[in-house]
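Quick one:
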Amino acid sequence: MPKNVLVIGGTRYIGKLLVQRLLRAGHRVTIATRGYAPDPFGDRIARVRVDRRNETAMRNAFAHLGPFDIVYDQMCYNPLDAAIAVRTFAGKVGRYVMASTIDAYRALGFGHADPLRESDLAVEAQRIDTGYPWHDPCRATECYVAGKVQAEAYLVRDGALPLVTPRLAHVLGGPEDFTGRLAHYVELARMNGVLEYSNPDAVLSFMPLQGAADFLVWVGMQDFTGPVNAACDGALSAKSLYERVGAVLDTPVRMRRRVPPAEMGRLSPFDVPGAMVLDTSRAQALGYRFGHCEDWIDDTIQLHDLAFV
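Output:
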């Protein structure tokens, strides 16, 4: 049965693919953005131009819209955003899907011997600081992890929204990946650069861009609530990813271990002091299958290489 779906932030990267898949499945889609970025959807969707971080604007924009069967919030980054969502959508949505991240587990540190389960991160026990200047653009990077964790915590404690929080592994896409993280390794290899790395065993979970969008669509159509991890099998470290890039590009790569290790991400985007791998048994028990990094990583690297050339 077609559903009435709102996507907050649906004009680029994961959000754009999410909208494409929802339309292909026959759902009615509205996107809410500030209107700065164009979208390719024409008259197939409805649009609401609004600043996600302005509570008055949000409440006015949606006062007479809805109810929505599903709200996908791709732009909820901190407890202030979460509070705005509650006061805008409480009682007007059947399912609220807040896109979260593997980075939320950074609150627990690195170097875990076992894959991380959803219950390992007790978000309901996290301190919520609504006085912090979360919307200061100069602090966007430094507050990203705490913001995501506290956004989840706020929504869980409030309880007004039927909440699902997909915690996505690091998402790798082609040249459209605005983060530039995989592109960093491809460009370094093409320039015969030396990768410095901290720990060869510091593996991370990954998933492809298309897989992230597919998973979000699936999550929206289910009826479970709470956090759910999403990742492909086959975790990679910065070192093993760079080796993979070299193999795909058929070019030798040079590496050097840095002792003592640098801060996370200082040497390269996925260089971390210790392992952080997601346990996906909950999603699998609910019926989802992710596949393996071997299924897509080489093709994604090649797309970046073509763009580099």
